[in-house]
# Entry
Amino acid sequence: MINASDRGNSGRSERDVELLDVFGPGGVYVTSLPRWKVHEEGLWHQVFHCLVVRSGRPARVLLQRRRSSSNAFPGMLDLSATGHLLAGEEPVDGIRELREETGLDASRSRLVSLGRRLLVDDSGEGLNREIVHAFLLTDDTPLGDLRLDPGEVAGFVELTIHELLLLLADPARSVAAFEVDPAGSVRRVECRGAELVPAVDGYWTVLATMAERYVAGVRQLGV
# Structure
């Protein structure tokens, strides 16, 4: 349970006061602190990233449309599911984020680990120092059958990995794709490279390439 003293002030949201594990040099666990404090002080913590891949040809992926009210990157296109790992959680426990955001009831055993990556940026919550645990998940649930939570996401976009790589190479470029909203309505849209959540060190490109290799049958993968 979180003590009142951990809340900072009564205006903090329930998400702000979630407890996160904090790590020091070498990835050694140090303590657990409220989310707001972790970001305020720029402490290392763990997050879950998952890219959902379609098994057909050409290989396709699902990208999340972030809510316009999100503190971090509102309205932009992100990986299929991302989120903080709460105190005491293992990397695969992050699959709850996928369930919450897409309604997909996938088991932990279906996650394909790509390893971990260190990320430092400004996410909108403050200085962000993340230990990112990256995964792929193959799932062919049709767009219109996804059970989206409007409190979590604004929609999902499906496009080919080749098209995603084109957008990553040129932010001014656009491609045609299909997007579903929380009501289950699917429509054709134009997606621009500039809509992708910014990533450092070519992280998006690495993930897209790993997804492409996985669909092709390659099993030596990593970020």
Observations:
- The chain has four helices and eleven strands.
